[in-house]
Amino acid sequence: MNKIWLILSREFVTRVRKPSFILATLLTPIGIGLIALLAGYFASKGAASAKSIIVKDESGIFKSNPPENSSHTYVFSNDSIETLKESYKEENDILVFIEPISDLTKKRHQALFYSEEKLSISTIGSIEKSIAESVKNYKIEQSNIDKTVYESFNTKFSLENGVSLEDDPKASGKLSVIIGTILGALMGFLMYMVIFIYGGMVMRSVMEEKINRIVELMISSVKPFQLMMGKILGVGAVGLLQLGIWIVLVPVILFTVQMVTGAGMGIENSSQLQEITSQMNSPEVADQLENFKIAEIIKEFRSQNWVLIIPVFILFFFGGFFIYASLFAAIGSAIGDDMGESQQLMLPIMIPVILAFIMMQGVIQNPNGGMAVFGSLFPLFSPIIMPARLAFDPPLWQVGLSLVILIASCIFFAWFAGRIYRIGILLYGKKVNLRELGKWLFYKP
Amino acid sequence: MNVLSIQNINKQYKNHKAVDNMSFDVPKGSIFGLLGPNGAGKTSLIRIITRITGADSGNILLNGININQAEIREVGYMPEERGLYKKMKVYEHLLYLAQLKGLSKKESKSVINHWFEKFDIGHWHSKKIEELSKGMQQKIQFIATVMHKPSLIILDEPFTGLDPLNTNLIKEEIYRMNREGASIIFSTHRMEQVEEICKDIVLINAGSKVLEGKVADIKQQFKSHTFSIDCNAANIPKVCSSFKIVSSSEDNAIIQIEEGITPNQILAELMENNVQIAGFEERLPSLNDIFINIVES
């Protein structure tokens, strides 16, 4: 045990002191801050760049009811279209030509545009939207319908939990489901990253020791299993430290960016949160978020069961990392300096991780379904699936059982990887495949 | 008393037998040569002794105790494949290795300082391993092997890559530690070094022991009854019953004598023939000759 501790400390200290570690740990949050700054900047500028547009409106509808809040500037001209075609380039970017609209009952109408530069979809779309809005308002007016009456046709319905939080603290409002989805996706994604970043780190480090030929010196002093274990735990500690720093630094930097620019990506209103969630591939959630105020969201965030979530997440972080790092260590020991070979042997490890990641997207939509329960118990998936479910108050027995299975699997995979590792590290110049690795399990060292 | 007792060790790898029913003893306080051509099974055997791998069958006793129960710090091993953590600083690296051998931090520090002074390398303290030359790294590796004062030191080709100055330095240390009671196993295929350093040897080939004993005895055993005589060689009779001339030059002759004839009889016969003898010496085979002889046959 003492030796594992010695190895662990060395792995930890040498990694943490490396300039590359310090850089990565500090630059990542700064990078995220910069991206937030840029995103805020571009968001405030508007997605489509502003154009100056000259309109020849023969229908007169658009002209009489020009758009109010457009990023583009609209100028109306009475010159003939032929002259305009010649001259619009002098002062304007785009010429739009609207012919008289004969049949107002039609849904679709058409206008023509002329432009020297190629227009983006979003520019065309925003112009189309402005004209359509203007024509729609004209149609409402002509039909003698009150505008508010017309708006009320566009119906929405919202379903709320009948049990209020005061009656039952465990009752979850819709907002808490939404927050859970975001949190779940975030934690699942984090686990996925952790497995690849730090698992890969373990593998490279094992390979290095083998290539450096230091391994023979080491295992004349310590057992191969101790060496492997110390390395995995040491890298795990580095990962935990790095994540810890990020978890503190990223919000601090985002907050600072928001303070400095007054905008940024610090989620200041629900529409931005909505944008983020829609990028995370769940447009329904994004739609729902529209209706909430930021204060409520923060309140809901605070009311999450952090006392359960944080320690359990750390347990799953370590368990998941441990299982996959063991496998990566075994692969690292089996290959020499041939990176190509490692790709081939890494594939069987990567498949369950990627599978779990894909599964997670379904699980956060249906966090208590059969797939979710299976995924959070199966040890190769559970480190990604279970954290993703945590914010949905999964039954405690499932969390408990999942943890028990995870810990048992850690022991199994440590044994499994140790068997391969002790043979692999002393073997040079031999091409190995999966069958060969299987045989090593039962070799006498 | 033996520091190490190898008893019927067998080790089978997939396609070949690396160690085949090997038995021999290493006397306490000896400098022991473990010889053999490349691929003879030296490293396989050493790996079993150092518990890096396990034997399929057989026993190894270290100071009379089964090797698996023995203290790991009793053994110091310098592998032929040398490696250190390139990015680590010299002092830290030695500290780490010493602690892995079971020394306390305080003990380790004082031992390392002692060796830094002895080899006059205090200024390497904060250098990274990768900044050192190969020979320098080897010195560090040597320190790492012996700093915990093991009772058995196993050196696998310890001099490869060292200049004559450093070779001598290490050699002196080996002698000194041996005088202080450490037993040393010296594995190599460089015969002239063995002849110089070792008193006892075992020669292995293809996983089996082929020869064992004191260097002097083995030389006697393999002597070819050849003598070198410094003399006016022209006077030596060309045909003689008790010996035959192997080669001769103006002032030297190499002769081989028949079984049962003593050197005195030869001398008498030569003097009868008026040969002026300036020197007379039995030519013992070098270990190199014996080695090549045995391995080739």
SSE blueprint:
The complex is a heterodimer of chains A (about 450) and B (about 300).
Chain A: H1 2-17, H2 19-45, E1 52-57, H3 61-64, E2 73-76, H4 81-87, E3 94-98, E4 112-115, H5 121-142, H6 147-153, H7 174-212, H8 215-218, H9 224-261, H10 270-279, H11 283-289, H12 294-302, H13 306-334, H14 339-365, H15 370-377, H16 382-389, H17 396-424, H18 434-440
Parallel strand pairs in A: 1-2, 1-3
Antiparallel strand pairs in A: 3-4
Chain B: E1 2-12, E2 17-27, E3 31-35, H1 42-49, E4 57-62, E5 65-66, E6 75-78, H2 90-100, H3 105-118, H4 134-146, E7 152-156, H5 164-179, E8 183-188, H6 191-197, E9 200-205, E10 208-214, H7 215-221, E11 226-231, E12 243-248, E13 252-257, H8 263-272, E14 277-283, H9 287-296
Parallel strand pairs in B: 3-8, 3-9, 6-7, 7-8
Antiparallel strand pairs in B: 1-2, 1-4, 4-5, 9-10, 11-13, 11-14, 12-13
Rough shape of chain A?
elongated
Helix % of chain A is: 55-70%
User: Strand tally of chain B, please?
Assistant: 14
Strand order of the largest sheet of chain A: 2-1-3-4
Categorize the overall geometry of chain B. Answer: elongated
Radius of gyration of chain B: 24 Å
The class by helix and strand makeup of chain B works out as alpha/beta
